[in-house]
Amino acid sequence: MPPSKPRRAEASKKRKLVETTEILAALQFGPKQRNEIAAYSLLALLDLRPESSWAEAQAPLRGITPIIDFIASAYGVRYAPNTRETIRDEAVKFFVQTGMLLRNPDDPHRPTNSGKTVYQIEPSALALFRTFGKPGWPSALKHYPASREGLKHEIARKRNLARVPVRLPDGSQVTLSPGGQNPLIKAIIELFCPAFAPGGIVIYIGDTENKFVHLETDSLKSLGVTLDSAAKMPDVIVHYVEKNWLLLIEAVTSAGPVDGKRRKELKELFGGCRAGLVFVTAFETRRAMQSFLSQIAWESEVWIAEDPDHMIHFNGERFLGPYPDAAAE
After folding, report:
1. CA–CA dist 323, 55 (Å, integer)
2. List of domains in the chain
């Protein structure tokens, strides 16, 4: 008597999972990257259902949530929303690092931490997967590592080309990851600083890919500040040496202005500073500022990149300076 349809379907699911794990092992992924979550994630990225053949593999653009949805729909395995980080960290991240998976190929300038981030199987990897179970698989597997190494170098080259160059006041240069708030950070360094903190020292710049892309630790220490690596830093810190002010600047494109709570946090974080604290929120445009107006803290400043020669002073009894509660001791 032939097996029932549900039993055949279950057997197909198990077989696909076993085959995917075998492929990941052949590609020399470690145990954590060839577990069940990784295997199901790869099947989702290949759009392969249990009954599909490997020759039918595709390369759709998929984010983490669509990956979870596909696994639930095709394989009946339901991962909770709080497993998103697990899927990203134990599977997708390693696939990207090896060049097997492309991140945001539709928009290389999309920030790494964007909720719209998508992934896609790289073309030569897709061609390899389509040969699994066929006579050409061993040969394709043998030649794939060489093409993957070349691809990794090309991805790194394109990523470097897309980075945002920022020239510091001392003439040196740093580069930031593309997209997000980093173009605004570039404007802060190159437009705000010369106008409102001439001769200032850029002590810190944060980046979505590297929190400490630029940090002058000795400069902070000389001001009496020692920060923990886990501290919630402002986006930019500038020491206006002439007036001995420490400008704590938040670059806002979607969230994070200096509101009352954030002003208090920053004041406490830099409580031992021997320079007066100035709290600044930066926006790209007036329109971008509008939805945050009710949140901006009193005794703080607002700068808008499209009008770089002007400042907005909230309760500004003085022109861009520390208030009594944040003055140098």
Report:
1. 68
2. 5-162 (1.10.10.1820), 164-326 (3.40.1350.80)
Q: Which amino acid type is present at position 158?
A: K
Inter-residue contact 297 to 279 (CB < 8 Å): yes
Spatial CB neighbours of 284, under 8 Å, sequence gap ≥ 6: 183, 184, 187, 253, 304, 305, 306
Letter for the amino acid at 28?
Q
pLDDT in tens, 224-283: 988 877 789 999 999 999 999 999 999 998 788 999 999 999 999 998 899 999 999 999
Residue-level pLDDT at 302: 96
Q: What's the predicted TM-score (pTM) here?
A: 0.55
Is the distance from CB of 43 to CB of 34 less than 8 angstroms? no
Mean model confidence pLDDT for the chain? 87
Which DSSP symbol is given to 88?
A: I
Average pLDDT over residues 61-65: 95
Alpha-carbon span 96 to 106, nearest angstrom: 15
Q: pLDDT tens, 109-135?
A: 776 667 789 999 999 999 999 999 999
Distance CA 105, CA 12 (A): 32
Question: What percentage of the chain has pLDDT greater than the value 70?
Answer: 89
For residue 128, give the 3-state DSSP assignment: helix
Distance CA 27, CA 24 (A): 5
User: Torsion over CA of 166, 172, 177 and 183, rounded to 10 degrees?
Assistant: -10
- Percent of the chain residues topping a pLDDT of 90: 56
Pairing of strands 201-205, 173-176: unpaired
